[in-house]
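Data card: per-record layout.
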Amino acid sequence: MAYLADYCMAGYGGRGTLTEAFICGLHKALFPRDYKQVLMTTPEGEVVYMVPGEYKRFSNGGESCLYPNRYIICIAPEDVPETMAQAVITLNAALAAATDERQKRDAILFFIVDFLVIHPFADANGRVAFMLADLLAIREGLLAFYFHRIKEKDWLALYRAVELACEKRELTPLYEVLEKYKTNPSDTA
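The structure for this 189-residue chain is written out next.
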């Protein structure tokens, strides 16, 4: 945990703009050194691993929280580098142009929604997204979102709100969940 905190503070502690390199490093920092997770074995017998800090090599997705029996396919692996680069550029530009707290929060939330749609890693995308949301908020002088706490209390409401925000390109569902599960900053223990 200390390594992760040190990485965040040294790499993005209130200065500069967000980079893909930082995001990949944050993903890598979540796992022990030399960690490899078996994702699958191909029909030819090749073992495929998830390597922390590297973008996914296979398509991934999950069940819709809004529509029963619908499977959501995330961005194809070959499109991840370009879509991540564009998402980071869009975020940095939106934050630079933001003139008030609401514009900053909107920019961060749209980035998090985009990140989750891209789903750039084979595993731990939610953890990275939630940490990035709080890091970005704190860097911009805002209160953290505490998505990890909301997920613990009502993961289905959170996932539905993200899915709706993505589908409609509208942040109201996320703001409603944030308001419902507003966390008191003194409750961070």
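Known properties of this structure: The longest strand covers residues 37-41. The chain is about 55% helix and 10% strand.

See the next section for split statistics.
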